[in-house]
Amino acid sequence: MGNAAFRLHCSILGPLEVRVDDYTAVIGAPKQRLLLAILLCHANAVIPSDQLIDALWGERPPRTARKNLQVYVSGLRKIFGDRLSFEGWGYRLFAGREELDLLRFVELARSGRAAVRAGDLAVAAELLGEAVRMWHDPPLAEFSHVPLVAGELARSTDLFLSVYEDWVELEIELSHHVEALASLDLLASRFPARERIAAARMTALYRCGRASEALSHFEGLRRHLAAEIGLDPSPVLRNLYQEILRGEGRRTADGAGHAGAGRPRPIQTLANQLPRDIADFVGREREVRRIVDEAAAVTLITGGPGIGKTALAVHVAHMLAPGFPDGALVVALRRHCGDTRGTVDLQRELLEGVGLNVAGIRDDDVLASVWRSWLANRKILLVLDDSPDESSVRMLLPGTTASKVLVTSRSRLSGLESVTRVGLEELSAAEGLEFMGRLIGHDRVFGDLPAVTAIFEQYGVSPLALRLLGGRLSGLRHVPLAHLAERLYRSENILDEFVAGETSLRDRFEECYNRPSWAHRPAFLALGALPGPPFGHDELVAALEGIVTSAERAIESLLEANILSVPQKAADEAEVVAHSMAYTMSPLAHRFATELRRHHGR
Question: Where does the record place a coiled coil (predicted)?
Answer without folding.
Answer: none
